[in-house]
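Obj.: predict assembly geometry.
Materials: sequence records (below).
Method: joint structure prediction, all chains together.
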Amino acid sequence: MSKQTSFVDRLWDFFCSVKLTIVILILLATTSIIGTVIQQNLSQQEYMQKLGMSEKTYNLFHSLQFFDMYHSYWFLALMGLFAVNLICCSIKRFPRVWKIVREPVLVADDGMYRTFSNRAEVVTTGSLESVRDKVSKLLTDKFTAPVVTEQDGHFHLFAQKAPYARFGVYVTHLSILIIFVGAMIGNIWGYKAFVNIVEGTFVDAVWGRNGQTPIPLGYEIYCENFEVTFYEGGGRPKDYTSELVVKENGKEVLRKTIEVNDPLQYKGLTFYQASYGQSGTPTYRFRVQERASGETVEVVGQQGKHLAIPGGASLIPLGYASNHMDFGPAAQVSIDAGDHAHGNPFVVLQKFPEFDDRRGGDYIVSLLEAEQGYYTGLSVTKDPGVWVVWIGCFLLVAGSMIAFFMSHRRIWVVIQPLEEGVGVKCGAIAHRNQPAFTLFFDELKKDLNDTLVEK
Amino acid sequence: MSSSLLFNVTTIAYFAAMVTFLLYLVSKSDKIALGATVICWVGFLANTAAIGMRWQEAYAMGFEQAPLSNLYESVVFFAWSILLIYLLFDLKYKQRAIGAFVMPFAFFGMIWAQWDLDATIQPLVPALQSNWLTYHVITCFLGYAAFAVACGVSIMYLIKVGKEEKSADESPIGGILGMFPSVKVLDDLNYKAIMVGFPMLSLGIITGAAWANYAWGTYWSWDPKETWSLIVWFIYAAFLHARFTRGWVGRRAAWLSILGFAATIFCYLGVNLVLSGLHSYGGA
Ligand code: HEM
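Observations (raw C-alpha cells):
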C-alpha cells in the first residue's frame, strides 16, 4: 500500500472515531463556559472601564476572540469538526446496520450459537415437522412469527422485533446536522432588525442591527394605537400592546394587536413587541377662565404652541409630568398677555381643576386632559431556516427516544435430527436493555421446555 | 387550609422519609423501608396539593399564571419532580436503599425554599406570560430530577465500590453497605436515570428555544442560561457515548454523572446567583 492511502486511511479513522466525539463534546462543554463568564459583545471602553480589564488582558482576549466567542473561528471550527465526525461515523456504520435490518441472517451457524448470551437447548421426540410447528407457534404467541428456512435437513427459524430501533441513533445524529443546516440558512438568508413607529404614523423600512442602512419592506406598517398598562402599586408593566396595520399599495391587508409573546407575521418577517417609549410632545386640553370677565373657553393644542385665550392673550403649554409630586398628571404652562413675552411658568394639576384659582392670576387655568404620544419599539426578524431547525429538534427527540428505549430483539432456532430424538437449539440477542430481554428469554425457555418435553 | 401549611407538611414528610430510610439501612427491616416509602408518597401528595393550591391562590389574586414564576416556586417544583422520578424508579426497581441518597436533595430543596426564599406570589412580567414557560420548566425539571437520582445512585456506587476493593477477600460486604443494591445494579440505575433525563433535558432546551423564538424572534442567543443548559447536555451526551461505544461503566461513569449533576445545579442556580454577580461587579 502506498504511503498516501495509509495517510488518508488514518485521517478517515480519525474522523470516524468515537473517542474524537467524546473529546469534542468535552471541549465544547468546557470552552462554552468562557462566554458565560466574560460578557459578550461590549465595546472596548466598556470592558476596560466598567469591567476593569487591563489593556494587556483586553488585547489578549480580543485576539483570542473571547468577546464574541460563539462566533469565533475556533469555536465554529470545533462545531464543524463535530459535524464532520458525525457524518463520517454515519457513512462508515450505516451500511452495516442497513444490512442487518434488510438482510437478516436467517440461518445461524454453530459459531453464532456459541456467542449468544441467551441460549436454550432441548431434546425432544416426534417428527422434525411437528417440532417445527410447535416452536413456530410458541414464537408466534410469545414473540412474533418466525421465518422458516430449510437447509441440509435442518429447520432454521428466525424471528425479530423492532429492527427499526437500530435507526434511532442515525435519526438522532442526522437531526443534529439538520439543526446545523437550519442555523446556517438563518445566518445566510435571514437578518435581525428593529424599527420604532410613532403612534399614528407608519414605516416602510426597518433598520439592520448596525442601525445604518434601512431595509425596505415593500409594504407599510402603521401603528394605529399603543397602550401600556401597569400593575397596581409599583410600576411593573402588566402589558403593552400595539395595534398594527399592514398596508400594501394603500390597501389594508392585515391588522393585528401585538404584545410581548404574541407577534405579527407577514411575508416571512416577524414583528415582535420589544420596547416602547414616549415620543414627541403631548397634546393638551385646557379650560381657561378670564377672572375679570368670567369668560370661559376650552383650548386644545400641542406643547410650545400659543393657544388663544380671551383678552388677546395666549396660553403656552411648556411641559408635562405624568405624576407631579404624587398629585398625578400635571402641565407646566405660562401666559403671554399679548406682549409676546412669556409670563412666569406655573403648574396646573389635572386631578385638581380648581386649584389654579388660588394662584390669584388673571386667568384660572385647568388641565382637562393631556395625551402623551408613544412610539412602539419592534424587533424584526427574518429567519427562513427556523422550520428546518424545528424539524431537526423533532427528529432529535424522536430519534433519541427510539435509540434509548427501543431494542432490536432477535431469536434464532435450529431444529435438527439427533441420533436419538430431535434437538432444538435456541439463541437470542437484544441490542439494548439486555437484562429485561434475559428475563423475557428465561420465560420463553420455560415455555419451550413445557411445550416440547413430556413430563 | 393554605398552600403554605401543605408545604410545611411536605418538608416534614421529606425529612421523616430521609431519616426513616437511614433507619432502614441500620435496622435492615423491610417494614421500615415500606414505612419510609409510604411517607414519601404522603409528602409527594402534600407537595402536589400545595402546588395546586398555590395555583388557585394566584388566580384568586387575579394573576393567571402557573406556579412556576419565581425561585421559591421553582425549588418546590424541583422537589416535586425529584419525588416523581424517584417514586417511578421505586415502583419499577424496588431498590429501597436509594431513598436514603435521593431524599436529601428533595428535603434540602424544600427547607431552603421555606427558610430562605421569598414565598410571596408576584405577577409575571409580560415577557414570561406564556404557556411555553410551563412546558419549558416542566421538561427541564423532570430532566434535572432524573439527574439528581442518577447522582444519588452514583454516590452510593462510589461508596460501595471503594469498600469492596479494600476488603480484598471475596466475601460479600455486610453492615450498612450490605443493604445497598449491588454495584452492578447501581451502575445500571445510574445509566437508566440518565437515559430518562437526557431526552427530557433535550425537550427542555427545545421548548426554551421555541419560546425564545416566539417571544423575541431568536431561538438561540447564547445567553449564560442557555449556554449552561447546553453544557449540561454536552456532558451527558459524552456520558452516553462513552458508555455505548467505549464501555465506560462503573467508577468513571459514576464520576461523570456527579459532574453532570454539579453542572446541572450550576445551570439552575449558579447562573442566576453567581454569574449575574460577576456581570454586575462593574455596574453602577
Ligand atoms: C441527542 C444526542 C445524541 C444521542 C441520543 C446519541 C445517541 C447515540 C447512540 C445511542 C450511539 C450508539 C450507537 C450504537 O451503540 O450502536 C451513538 C453513537 C455515536 N454518536 Fe451519538 N448521539 C447523540 C449526539 C451525538 C453527537 C452530537 C455526536 C457528535 C459528533 C455524536 C456522535 C456519535 C458517534 C461518532 C457515534 C458512534 C457511531 C456509531 O456507533 O454508530 N452523537 N450516539
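Conclusions so far: Confidence is low (pLDDT under 50) at residues 277-284 of chain B.
To do: check interface contacts against the pulldown list.
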